[in-house]
Amino acid sequence: MPILGNILRVIAIANSVGLSRLIPEVVKGIEFPFQLSPFDISPRFPIVPDIPGISSMVQTPVKKLSFEEFLEQYPDGGIYELINGEIIAVEPTRAHKNVARFLMLAFNDEIRRLGLDYIADKDVIIRTFTDTGQEQGRKPDVSVVSGSQWNSNVLAYGALIEPIQLAVEVTSTNWDDDYVDKLDEYHRLCIPEYWIVDYLAIASRAYLGNPKLPTIFVYQLVDGQYQVQKFTGNDRILSTTFPELALTVKEVVAASQIQKL
Fold this sequence. Notes:
- The protein is about 30% helix and about 20% strand.
- It is of the alpha+beta class and about 260 residues long.
- The strands form three sheets. It has a six-stranded mixed beta sheet with strand order 3-6-8-9-10-11, sandwiched between helices.
- The longest helix is centred in the middle third of the chain and has 21 residues, at about 95-115.
């Protein structure tokens, strides 16, 4: 079996360095304790056959998608984000959607009432970057975009590479994405205002305190840095994008309809 293992390693190495044409000479006349077809040694399958005691030596790397490729391959139906080069499905609960819808409608009411040059939408994809320069494709639960910016190219799809005015993320079980990853990416993109809506008080006490209460964090960009305000209960949420918005955390939490369960 050690000889067989060495032979298989040679096959794997030959595949990985583009010398697969030499493999037939290597294996000629050798009797294997399993069926080895030409497909098993094809460069398209560079992983060594699974034999007890012998680990695979070569693995095919998964190509990371760019933001443009993500948009080209975006699946029909559902909500998806580009995370670390992979298309990841996002499946929010109905309560989550209730909160996002409530905020979007509240923003739209303010936009119409005051004639603001904004558009509030739930289907905007934005390109962000990680600290390593990796392109990400984020889809905030609610996005507020400059109307002039949005309507500058109405035939384009709902993807933007410029910073939007306000991004809202409603937290779920992967709450650290909102509190850490997206916070960093939205700051890096210079989004002027970012809301984290933790209506379930699901984050750790390091963020929410003790006791943990449903909380909305509003991050506002001041001189290139985010400054955060924390709102709970009957606190009126203060927003530079919507300075006259009359909305409390309690009202946002109630929109989830969880209290009726």
